[in-house]
Amino acid sequence: MSIDENIRHLEAQKDMLEFALKSHEENKKVLNQNLQELESKLFKLRRLAKSLRNDLYSTNENISESIIYKRLTIESELNNLNSLKNNIMTQKMELMKLSKQWEDYLKEKSTLPSNKFTGLDIKKIELLRSYFVNNLKLYGYKSVINLNTVEISLESYLPVIEGFDMKFDSSASDNIRAIWAFTMALMQTSFSMRGNHPSILLFDEPDQHSIIINDMEQLFKSIIILGRTCQVIIAITVKDSDTRQAVGRLSTDAYKLIKVPNKAFARLE
Hints:
Elements: H1 3-56, H2 65-110, H3 119-138, E1 150-152, E2 159-161, E3 164-165, H4 172-193, E4 200-204, H5 213-225, E5 231-235, H6 241-248
Parallel strand pairs: 4-5
Antiparallel strand pairs: 1-2, 2-3
Helix pairs in contact: 1-2, 3-4, 5-6
InterPro entries: P-loop_NTPase (IPR027417)
Coiled coil: 7-101
Keywords: Coiled coil
């Protein structure tokens, strides 16, 4: 057998042994319970036998130790049965209460949508996909020829293609573009649907992996279009003239530029 077959065989043997062990433990538990019950009955019978022997040799005919013991035993059993009866009634009331709660839960469950999504949920997901795909086109995403195949997973709410995560088919630079597109789409969807987005975004070095400067400029413009409804912070290292020119072409009224001449984090002297 191959290594994988050996592993599967050993795992099957392990499962069988675990099942057998569990079965033996349950049998042992039942046997212990039966043993305790038998020991209790044996103890009572021994006491009764002792009382009967005492009666045989007793000179007082008016008092029978065995009868007294038997009566006490019966009274004890009656008390136990009454206690059991009360316990059963208490448990019955609790079960009736739980049954009513379960009935209410089933009624509430029947009012839920069969596919766990409401119509509004589906609308939000569709809008998220629409914004995401439009952003991909705007930012120059090229790893997928037909962007109509892009979907939003109903399990993870992340973009997928034919059920697989988009990043597996994306180049390094397109993976950055997809991050831009999805991050922006989340906030755009929230604005359109009056969602709970905090209206704050932070992009750290968005020009990684030799991103084409025109695509990054489109990112800047799409952020500016949002206006003052949100706060977007972009930390970027201006390494070449193209990046400097892209920033320079933006309207100075639309953003605030904070230059850090040296290192942003430095040792305190």
